[in-house]
Specification:
By secondary structure, this protein is α/β, with parallel strands linked by helices. The chain is built from five helices and five strands; from the N terminus they run H-E-H-E-H-E-E-H-E-H. The protein has a three-stranded parallel beta sheet with strand order 1-2-5. Helix 2 links the parallel strand 1 and strand 2. It is elongated.
Length: about 120
């Protein structure tokens, strides 16, 4: 049995992309698009962006988004991690998903909405 996504079935041409593991520069985006990549996957670590509820630090995110746009690359964000304040009581690992309480889910939704703006 073959599985085909609607994007692949439609012949979507933006399937060639790259994954960058460190904060990319404008030159990195230019090299990627110059090599034919149209999509760039980039990981954003929630605890480093929202260190306290509602306290966002976009200092490292804004240049990435601006550089991707300037190079004509579609950015595919991968959102990772959970700040300590959004984990259930006693949780040790910041990699635990914020899905276990209504408060955690609301914090996650707020973060995703803020990143999308």
């Amino acid at each position: 049995m073959a599985f085909t996504s609607p994007v692949m079935a439609a012949g979507h041409r933006n399937l060639y992309g790259v994954t960058l593991t460190s904060p990319p520069t404008a030159a990195d985006f230019q090299r990627a698009t110059g090599a034919g990549a149209q999509t760039v996957r980039m990981t954003f670590y929630w605890p480093s962006i929202e260190w306290a509820p509602g306290a966002f630090n976009w200092q490292n995110v804004d240049p990435i988004i601006a550089n991707a746009a300037q190079a004509g690359a579609e950015l595919l964000p991968v959102l990772y991690g959970t700040p300590h304040w959004a984990t259930p009581q006693g949780a040790e690992a910041p990699t635990r998903p914020a899905i276990y309480t209504q408060q955690s889910r609301a914090a996650w939704s707020s973060f995703v909405a803020a990143l999308a703006e």
